[in-house]
Amino acid sequence: MLPSERYFGKFEAVFLFYGAMPTGVAVSETGRIFTCFPKWGDDVKFTVAEIVRDTLEPYPNLEANEASPANITTSFISVQSVVADGKGTLWVLDTGAPNFSEPIKGGAKLVAVDLNSNTLRRIYTFTEEIVLPTTYLNDVRFDFRVGKAGYAYIPDSSSRGPGAIIVVDLETGHAWRRLNGAHSTSPDPFFLPKVEGQILANRNKDGSTSPFRLASDGIAISPDGKTLYYCPLSSRHLYSISTEALRDRTIPDMNVQQQVMYRGEKGASDGMITDAKGNVYAGDYENNSIRKIWPNGTMETIAHDPRILWPDTFSIGPDRYLYFIVNQLHRQSRFHYGKDLRQKPYSLLRMKIDEPPAPSL
Asked: How many angstroms separate the CA atoms of 355 and 92, rounded?
């Protein structure tokens, strides 16, 4: 018998998905687990759900998940990310852009859901100068230690327009774009992704092809809230910047770009997150792996397994487990001339890291 590749890392399945493909996961401070299903072509009955007793229940209710022209701003259209802030709120990031379309006017939004009452507490919408026709809101991180109500940081992971980090003042709702079209938020033009041994590219039903190009995607914030880590999806590089520079409107955006720090190569990542000690966890979708990056820059692969088929979003629970969605994103029909190669179930996995999540307050 010939030698073969070595796999390692201990993880377990938390939930298996036999319906629509999930992207996001959030574990609250009380251990409640939430997930989301963007409308990318699957039969999505509700775009936000809570996992309750091994079943999926629409969250906060079915009505909130039934968007119509009459309630575009008060209902969920196509949710890409859910984040529990550890302080009683689930934040829902709605792209407003089913099937990567131009965002529906008023549909792209950040929604605060009160976990005690399970009701929508506040909705943040965006002007056309912030959410562009090409914008795809991807993920969000928070810091409630600055300003009167805190700030949110949202990457624009556009495939057709400029990448950026959108900064939101949670008191006023005022938002602005930072690092708009910057090198660090843009796809690496020399990046050639290879997943499961094959080059990943857009391959359409009509036989036409184009490179896989997505802008800023993975995002994580340091435990003190002072540093934001981020990466384009189409890249193997990690960048960081001072959150103060992102918030300071007196600094021209061109000058903000000069404050970006290059953190080296970490592999091609979708989701990222930090723990309370400042360690960054990042997926490596090319190598079916999970990486841990220490504050001093040392990098360690903590899981490498053929079942980690595109690690997407991460969340750290109060049980000190790292939760992550595995959804075979690269097997979607848009990459294979219209043929869907995904195999159900998709999965929510977790592995023990023995660290709590980074605080936001």
From this structure: 25
